[in-house]
Amino acid sequence: MARRRGLVINDRQMRLVDDILNKLRQVSGSRFISLVSTSGQPITTSSAEEHPDTLSLASLAASSFAATQQLAEVLNEKEFTLLFHEGRESNLHVAQVSEQVLLVITFGRETQVGKVRLYTNRAVEVLRPIFHAIENEEQAPLLIDDDYSLLADEAIDDLFAGME
């Protein structure tokens, strides 16, 4: 049985994550973005409009993603790293950031799916090292200095530069 460690995010990491989510929402044309734990707990959100039930969305998205992982196992696939649901008015995209973190995105029919997927993949590339460091903090403490923060901010800006 795997031992699940808690996810502890400091203020600096949270500001960095919130900045990434806000930029992702703006460039992708998404309505709502949330980082959630694989246990279904919301971590943080970025929204152009109030989402009616963030807790239910987080819980159900995490459950659906867990079921998708079981489907991968049945198909002898190592893992599926994303989940997509298409509706009449809204779409839901769930991407795995790390072992314990999922990125949940909702967007309307007017937003191009490919655009959301492209920007989401790029955002996950930036988010993944942040959460891998947090999850592995028990083995090696994460020290983020001002140079790292500056470089991370520049990397985020470069990631989304000219994409708006």
Annotation keywords:
164 residues; alpha+beta; Beta-Lactamase; five-stranded antiparallel sheet; 4 helices; 5 strands
Q: Can you describe what's shown?
A:
The structure is a single chain. This protein is of the alpha+beta class. The protein has a single domain, classed as Dynein light chain 2a, cytoplasmic (Beta-Lactamase). The chain is built from 4 helices and 5 strands. The chain has helices at 11-28, 54-74, 113-135, 146-160, and strands spanning 32-37, 42-47, 82-86, 90-96, 101-108. It has a 5-stranded antiparallel sheet, with helices on both faces. A hairpin with a 4-residue loop joins strand 4 and strand 5. Helix 1 runs antiparallel to helix 3, helix 1 (11-28) runs parallel beside helix 4 and helix 3 (113-135) runs antiparallel to helix 4. 28% of the residues are buried.
